[in-house]
Amino acid sequence: MKDAIAILTGGGPAPGMNTVVGSVAKTFLEKGFRVIGLHEGYTGLFNKNPRTVDIDYFLADDIFNRGGSYLQMSRFKPTDQDFEENFNLEFFTSNNVKLLVTVGGDDTASTANRIAKFLEAKKYPIANIHVPKTIDNDLPLPGGSPTFGYESALDRGATIGRTVYMDARTSGNWFVLAAMGRSAGHLAFGIGTACHYPMIVIPEMFNKTEITVEKIVNLVISSIIKRKIMCMDYGAAIISEGVFHALSNEEIKKSGVHFSYDAHGHPELGKVSKAHIFNEMIENKLKEIGMKVKSRPVEIGYEVRCQTPVAYDLVYCSALGMGVYKLYSEGKTGCMVFVDQGGKVTQLYLKDLQDPTTGKIPPRLVDITSDEFKAVIDNILCYVTEADYEAAKKYVKNPEEYDFNKILNW
Hints:
Layout: E1 4-9, H1 17-30, E2 34-38, E3 52-54, H2 57-63, H3 80-86, H4 89-94, E4 97-104, H5 106-122, E5 127-132, H6 150-171, E6 174-179, H7 186-194, E7 199-201, H8 213-229, E8 235-240, H9 243-246, H10 249-255, H11 274-289, E9 295-300, H12 311-329, E10 335-339, E11 345-349, H13 350-353, H14 371-379, H15 389-392, H16 404-408
């Protein structure tokens, strides 16, 4: 029987999923392996009758440059009981599977880490290698290397963002955008920077103060006031959905939103329009202080997850896919494949990346101490400072309440 590999995709989609799967498949098929795709993420590993598909070269070539994921994805999170009672070892033995390849973000990586420990403890001769993806760009890769899918999502998000900004300028309106980013604000910051938005709000900015609904609203209104002082009656603000993760339960109640939660304990932000919520709160505050400003909500979420990958991700994901074979041939296991900016392929061991207490892979946050971040804050954003107080009194009685630095305690 041929040696085989199994590959699955977990979590939510990102541009480049099929590129990785296709590249892994082509590489291993060329080396004489059988390639088995597992549908529904980790579900198949804890199910006696997993949905599988044999991936031949024709199929790999057909899907490698498409958006979405040919292998159906799932956020299934196995319990400790699943590992002890339901792990489908027979799937591996009966198919002579020597390697499990997992493709996913932080939750998928954390589960891959659990699987690596499980296989080692049971002394099962099965290697496992993880390929890091997420449009959130929040996996801790060295040297600031992006996670695959981020550049494609950023490109599409910036296209939407530029169009919205043109509408704002054309119609004399404001737009309030919300961008995906559960734990970190990379996507919102990237889109806002690419489009020169006068206000960007990400959770990392609240490093010296608690995130509250009022502070988020006041940051946007600070930008509106500043633009009025500059005789500009239009603009756009982009807010990372990650601020909801940092809001206390009391603050979430103030927003009027009731979340359901997924298997990993995260609020299911995709079920509600964050842009609509933010826009409504901002409109209410503007009405309260007597400022006549038209604002409209725009959500940037599912629109960017399954788009066709841009050239950057097609090249990057191909390198990651081929890199899996390199690591496997070197006997590596329990690791993520990493390709640096120079094209060098190395391994990052999951056990070295995990939080020692929780065992989870911690997210990589936007570095607000970087020159890039500071330059955007100082030169692109528009907001009220002490120097604007006198001019701002034309629009609000208490301009200090909308002072950008005071709101953030910077």
